[in-house]
Amino acid sequence: MIIASSDQVSRATLFKRFPVPRNFGIARDSRIGPGKRWPAPAGAIRTKSFEIYRYDPDTPENPRVDTFEVDLDDSGPMVLDALIWIKNKVDPTLTFRRSCREGVCGSCAMNMDGTNWLACTRFISDLSTPATIYPLTNMRIIKDLVPDQTHLFAQYEMIQPWLQSETPDPEGERLQSSAERSRLDGYYECILCFCCTSGCPSHWWNGDRFLGPAALLQAERWLADSRDEATEERLDLLEDPFRLYRCHTILNCTRTCPKGLNPGKAIAEIKKLVVERRS
Amino acid sequence: MEHRNTQSPLARAIGLGSAKEGSGHWWAERVSAIALVPLTLWLAAALIAHTGSSHAAFIAWLKTPYVTALMILLLIAAFHHTALGLQVVIEDYLHTWKKFTAMIAVRLGCVALAVVGIIATLQIAFAG
Ligand code: SF4
Ligand code: SF4
Ligand code: FES
Q1: Does A150 contact B9 at a Cβ distance shorter than 8 Å?
Q2: Which DSSP letter does residue A78 get?
Q3: Positive or negative torsion for Cα A128, A118, A133, A82
């Protein structure tokens, strides 16, 4: 299947999860134990069950998966609405990040039915029953659905995501033609939710050194900016077998980006620039 | 986090810094792949064309100068591409000393196999 963007939910999924036992190859203290069942409130008519990953750092217990029955007539239509409903009506300790509830802040990224996406832009009706809700993969979990993104933001900081220019500041704005401005399309929309980096197999194996799709898409965003004068340093910083070339164009990133962007293509553009400047 | 690390997150992300190389490898991978497309097709077609022909006829074919040349080019492209490709697999999945050991073994192995193949081809070409 040729991947253009991730705007739609895949029509057919062969396996909801890879067919190995749930705790296969998992470190002892990360193994998922049996969770609690939280029944729907009395009188609820249309309900749906959600299996949600829980981890409480304040107890010595292992993570678990709780099952919540959500009253669909009392909750909004999005997965984030269901989570807020659970927090308000059933279990106030359920912990997750959210802010804008309209897909622009990137806080509510999580793994729903095996796919990374934003909880606030995913319809509950898109998910199977029971719906499985996990935090983003490949990160240390702080609590429940909240992963530690320190390293990802450090990698983002490393690509120097700001305009760099030696030319003295102009009187007014730095001008850009509309053609130059349009070269930022497909990059400036990135909300740094890290759905892509969390889903990238190369970042699973070598995330300590590989920058991952989110940081690399941002790197390309500054390379593509006509006002920036640091292209040379930027390319020096990126050209590295691990930082850049661990990307093997598997395109999991493009498949999962909830903003419909194409980090895989952005990375290919960087690779092209690096070859271009030496030949 | 397995052990306490007092480095800042940025220092950890920077690590040893950029190698400032990698494009050579990437480019060589594409170029050798492009060379391999016609060469492998040619070899496959030639082998199919020779099904049923005698050993002597095959040797005579291999002695033709252009066949010898293409054969050697194929050996160089194939083993160069193999070495580059296996290096990527090793870098992906092996770490610490295992990575360096495997890398050396693959490099030397590919050079050795290419040399053996080329000498065999030349010997057939120039033997009486
Ligand atoms: S295309 Fe590259 S960055 Fe995207 S998922 Fe694949 S390896 Fe990761
Ligand atoms: S490229 Fe898409 S998935 Fe990746 S961080 Fe940006 S918005 Fe999120
Ligand atoms: S809450 Fe802001 S992106 Fe979902």
Answers
A1: yes
A2: B
A3: negative
pLDDT in tens, chain A (279 residues): 445 555 555 555 667 667 888 888 888 989 999 899 999 999 999 999 999 999 999 999 999 999 999 999 999 999 999 999 999 999 999 999 999 999 999 999 999 998 999 999 999 999 999 999 999 999 999 999 999 999 999 999 999 999 999 999 999 999 999 999 999 999 999 999 999 999 999 999 999 999 999 999 999 999 999 999 999 999 999 999 999 999 999 899 999 999 999 999 999 999 999 999 998
Q: Which residues of A touch B24 (CB under 8 A)?
A: 278
**Smallest CA–CA separation between A211 and chain B, in Å?**
8
| Angle between the N-to-C axes of helices B55-63 and B65-93, in degrees from 0 to 180, rounded to the nearest 10 | 90
- Chain A closest CA to B84's CA: distance in Å? 12
Q: Which of A28, A242, A249, A269 to mutate to test the interface with B (most CBs of B within 10 A)?
A: A242
Q: Is the ipTM of this complex over 0.85?
A: yes
Architecture of domain B23-126: Up-down Bundle (1.20)
In 3D, which of A265, A276, A219, A273 has the Cα closest to residue A243? Answer: A219
